[in-house]
Amino acid sequence: MSNSKRVVLGLALAVLSANAAAELPHNSILSRYGMTPDELPKPAVIETQEPVDEKSRFHIEPEQPWATIRIGDGKKPQVTGNISIDNSVQQEYDRCQKLRAEMIKRGERYVVCDTSIPGMP
Question: pLDDT tens digits for 49-59?
């Protein structure tokens, strides 16, 4: 649609709106029925009641953090009784302790060698 068509359409809508507004009555609807605003009924008084504190049916707890940062306290891994599992867990723990010592020496963020957290090294 070209600019001239838009301008013509806009002017036509403006003329139609002005024509419709001119046809509206200028006096109040109440005056057509012979009433004044003072004669209108008063609104009903609504009594407000304080909300009663009810015991909640839901137990709401504060939001837990998505990550918990703990500094490892040097706990040794638990002994399972299976020699191959115990040896591999001990090797992994020693490897983690060496890596942690290196990272602390470099001043970087270090890892926690706590084996009580599932999925953590």
Answer: 887 777 777 87
